[in-house]
Amino acid sequence: MKYEVRKSKNLKRSLNLLNSNFKLLKGFTLVETLVIIGIMIILIALAIPTYRFFQIESGLENITEKIINSLRLARNKTLASEGASQYGVHFATTTIPHQFTLFKGGSYITRDDTADQISQLPTSVEIYEINLADGGEEIAFNRVVGDTAQAGSLGLRLIDNPGETRTIYIENTEISFVQIPLKSKILGLGL
Length: 191
What we know:
This protein is α+β, with helices and mostly antiparallel strands. The chain is built from three helices and eight strands; from the N terminus they run H-H-E-E-E-E-E-E-E-E-H. It has a domain at 63-187: minor pseudopilin epsh domain (minor pseudopilin epsh fold, 3-Layer(bab) Sandwich), CATH 3.55.40.10. It has helices spanning 2-24, 30-79, 183-187, and strands spanning 87-92, 99-104, 117-120, 125-132, 138-140, 152-158, 165-170, 175-180. Strand 6 and strand 7 (165-170) form a beta hairpin.
């Protein structure tokens, strides 16, 4: 009888120990799960505006490069005398969104409109300034030498953040751009 009582007590102890270990291995409680979900929501809420800002800013970078590439393409097509013609780029600020057109011809008005390659700026970007030598909105390149009489600059900016700008400089034979940072970015204020 003593043996059976001991055996019964040992069995109960073993079952209690096994039961307590099983309770430890059950999983997360509802409170723990809610805390983890709350932390994830806060992290996502902080990341979305930053992602959106970089997405908009990359749109400004991309369109700047696209305009520079179109200007260089127009110049190269003119130098190669493709179609025995001149080429140029026209900037339209009267359309929404603003756009630019790679055209075939000595000027935008006398162009061959079947060869037009029209590109629209993203809705978050605008052309805010066109400073060309003749006061116009187009740049045409001359055959044989590839220079232009419409040297000057073109300013692009973000509509929602007008301080974030890019300026493209067109000289007689060279095309380049400069990024002009905000004063607050230089000082690290992040305004």
